[in-house]
Amino acid sequence: MRxxxxxxxxxxxxxxxxxxxxxxxxxxxxxxxxxxxxSVTFFVGSLFFTAASFLQLVQAQTPAMTxxxxxxxxxxxxxxxxxxLPQDRGWLSAAVQLPGTLFFNISTLAALVHNATVQxxxxxxxxxxxxxxxLFLVASALALLAARSLRTGPSRTWPLAIGWVNMAGxxxxxxxxxxxxxxPSTGGLVDVPVAVGxxxxxxxxxxxxxxxxxxxxxxxxxxxxxxxxxIETRSxx
Length: 237
Hints:
By secondary structure, the chain is mostly helical. The protein is built from seven helices and no strands.
């Protein structure tokens, strides 16, 4: 795959997944389409998240997909689908984030099955999985540490910006998970507005982070070495 296309693919997948989560958490949308369709929106969004997270892991463990210049970014290279690089914080962040998205696959699928058979007390509330939120927080922290280790300049500024935006999204998702905890005494949620608002704001943060991947890629392109032209020789006249 061409490095530039891989980056575009994972950015697009993250953006679509984030948009699905944001849309699904809007009460007006849930009222318009119904609980089941709203749950489908979340589940589809989680699948886009998982696909994007897998591509990000592949990018992190494939040397040919990073550190490219204006020419080599268009050169197809073989992808590394399996690697173990725990000393690389960028790879470690992607490796932690991927199982987090799988937890969201499980939680959104469970919500879909529940909404398809039982009418919830408040269909506007989607409860993000606590373990997935924890893993997202850890992955965001690792991404920030990886960005801080880069040299100063545009190639560092963009990853830091993306890292902080994604950290904010992870914090909002964690707030949503805590707000959606069901109290055993009453059977109600701890805080419905926090549960709904945390999901919406977190999804918006992840959407911004996904869109920032595109200018960050352009800023990270290394300077291409000058092309070498053969020396022309002329026969004496």
